[in-house]
Design a protein that fits this description.
With 245 residues, this protein is α+β, with helices and mostly antiparallel strands. The chain folds into two domains: 124 residues, Immunoglobulins (Immunoglobulin-like, Sandwich), CATH 2.60.40; 49 residues. The strands form two sheets. Strands 1, 2, 3, 6 and 7 form a five-stranded antiparallel β-sheet that branches. Strand 6 and strand 7 form a beta hairpin. The longest helix is centred in the last third of the chain and has 29 residues. The radius of gyration is 44 Å and the shape is elongated.
Length: 245
């Protein structure tokens, strides 16, 4: 009894300090493969679809992190093919090019431990480990469905509404166009239009020209008055003093 209590106390302490491995703490996932090509040839590209499901029966809610397929050869060489999120929750695709040989295939599952998928022979095919039926039965018992027609292999379509899960890595929908500063700046730089369809700067030029004409008109009479009222010419002879001898 004392030994059991000590073990329980150690587990509780490990949970508090976060030292329990992800699998022991229940934070584990399974990688399921979509239908595979009929065969694989060396150094040829293939696109493989796969699912990463927490506890093997539901997509992880939140940002899972980097996912993909890792292939390890008999010589220990590893190849990593990162997955791209597809519209369905927990669904990914990776493009792979593999040389000839025998490769162990693992699903890289972000924050979760890698999951062994099977063995790939090139040339040849991928021998996938059988799906644990208990996980699918657990999915059916929960009666919570997350997918429509595109769904993990072997998971039946449950009746009722589908549950939307925010995975944090689904491809972003096309955002509506947003007005930028550039169009606004161009619009502001365009001359304003008057009610008659004449640019405002034309009216400003006309007004300035009219003002200049008015000033000129005011100055013309003054110049004329000066001309009309000029002092008579001075007779220089009348001011000459003659001294007779």
């Amino acid at each position: 009894m004392k030994r059991m209590l000590a073990v329980l106390a150690a587990i509780v302490a490990a949970l508090v300090t976060g030292t329990v491995p992800a699998g022991a703490a229940g934070n584990w996932a399974v990688t399921y493969m979509d239908p595979l090509p009929g065969g694989f040839a060396g150094d040829k590209p293939y696109t493989l679809g796969f699912w990463v499901l927490q506890h093997g029966n539901h997509p992880f809610e939140g940002n899972l992190g980097t996912v993909g397929l890792r292939l390890t050869g008999e010589d220990g060489k590893s190849l990593m093919f990162e997955g791209t999120a597809l519209p369905e929750a927990g669904h990914y695709a990776a493009s792979v090019v593999v040389p000839q040989g025998v490769w162990k295939v693992e699903g890289i599952q972000g924050m979760f431990m890698p999951h062994e998928v099977g063995q790939l022979s090139v040339p040849g095919g991928l021998k996938v480990k059988p799906v644990n039926k208990a996980l699918i039965e657990g999915f059916m018992a929960l009666r919570t469905d997350y997918w429509d027609a595109v769904r993990p292999p072997g998971f039946p379509d449950l009746p009722g509404d589908k549950v939307t899960v925010r995975t944090g890595d689904a491809p972003a929908a096309a955002a509506p166009p947003v007005a930028t500063a550039a169009p606004q700046k161009v619009a502001a730089a365009e001359p304003a239009q008057s009610s008659g369809g004449v640019p405002a700067y034309t009216l400003l030029l006309a007004a300035a020209g009219g003002a200049l004409l008015a000033v000129g008109a005011l100055r013309l009479p003054r110049r004329k008055d000066r001309k009309d009222h000029q002092d008579p010419p001075v007779d220089s002879s009348s001011e000459t003093i003659v001294i007779s001898g």
